Amino acid sequence: MLLTKEALKIDARLTTTRLKRFIKDYIQKTKAKGIVLGLSGGIDSSTVAALSASAIGGRNVLALFMPERETYNTLDKKHTKKLASKFGFSLATVDITDIVEACYKSIPAFDAKDRVSKGNIKARARIICTYYYANHQNRIVVGPSDKSETMMGYFTKWGDVAADISPLMDLYKTQVRQLAAHIGVPAGIVAKPSTPQLWPGQLAEDELGIGYETLDLVLLGLENFMTSEEIAQQLHLPLKIVQNVKSRWLSTEHKRRAPLTMKMQYRTVGADFRLPYTAP
């Protein structure tokens, strides 16, 4: 296949229709009272919030803005308010500063210099709060994960990736941006650099070591069983860059799967003993 920008172009209208149907159908089958999601003000969570409100009505969607002292950004707060006003969903602020700082103090081995482990506490604290609202209000959690970051393992295990459904997980980041622009997510959000907001100044592309426009084409090639050499040649990239992407993709497979178990019985949960997600 040809790895060009055209290869990543989506039919935004059809994609929107299918995703809204997917969200609405799941809500109806589970008989949930609505949706709850974490809203950072970034492209992925903003797109999911907008889609959810369009699918089931804003009155049935609760978005949680969950800042903490170290990474608080006034622009993110402004963007969440603007989005909630435009799409008509409820917005609540849950400051997780006290939660994460209590965790720091409670862990005997806590090392403030280990920013990845420290940052993952923040991601998991956010999902604790999100699932509290889901439990308390009989809502489902809709996740913001996109395909680019999921394939690269660029997420916190049992953190930001935790959800009941993840509508965007089969769309690359550049495709999410196309979708967001189509459904009316404000341009300032669409163009904003992605960040997990786990420490000050963190930017996704810096950590991944490659821009999303290029990364998505590399991943598309890998998805379609192209060799690293073929991908590098088409994209005019050093072979080492493609190999690094492939290596990270393969080495993070454990983050994308349910916990591994030993097969002991006739049928094994999660392997060959799988049931529908929703009751008949």
Radius of gyration: 19 Å
**Average residue pLDDT:** 95
| Sequence of strands across the biggest β-sheet | 3-2-1-4
Shape-level CATH architecture: 3-Layer(aba) Sandwich
- The low-confidence runs, each spanning 5 or more residues with pLDDT under 50, are none
Which oligomerization state do the chains in this entry correspond to? Answer: single chain
Q: Percent of residues in beta strands?
A: 5-15%
Kindly state the percentage of residues in helix: 40-55%
Biggest sheet overview: 4 strands, parallel
Q: What layout of secondary structure does this protein have?
A:
Elements: H1 12-30, E1 34-38, H2 43-56, E2 61-65, H3 74-87, E3 90-93, H4 97-106, H5 115-137, E4 139-141, H6 147-151, H7 173-183, H8 187-190, H9 204-208, H10 212-223, H11 228-235, H12 239-251
Parallel strand pairs: 1-2, 1-4, 2-3
Helix pairs in contact: 1-2, 1-7, 2-3, 2-7, 4-5, 10-11, 11-12
Description:
The chain is globular and about 50 Å long. With 280 residues, it is of the alpha/beta class. The protein has 12 helices and 4 strands; from the N terminus they run αβαβαβααβααααααα. The model has no long low-confidence stretch (mean pLDDT 95). It has one domain: Rossmann fold (3-Layer(aba) Sandwich). The chain is 49% helix and 6% strand. Helix 1 crosses helix 2, helix 1 crosses helix 7 and helix 2 runs parallel beside helix 3.
Could you write a compact summary of the structure shown?
The protein has helices at 12-30, 43-56, 74-87, 97-106, 115-137, 147-151, 173-183, 187-190, 204-208, 212-223, 228-235, 239-251, and strands at residues 34-38, 61-65, 90-93, 139-141. With 280 residues, the protein is of the alpha/beta class.
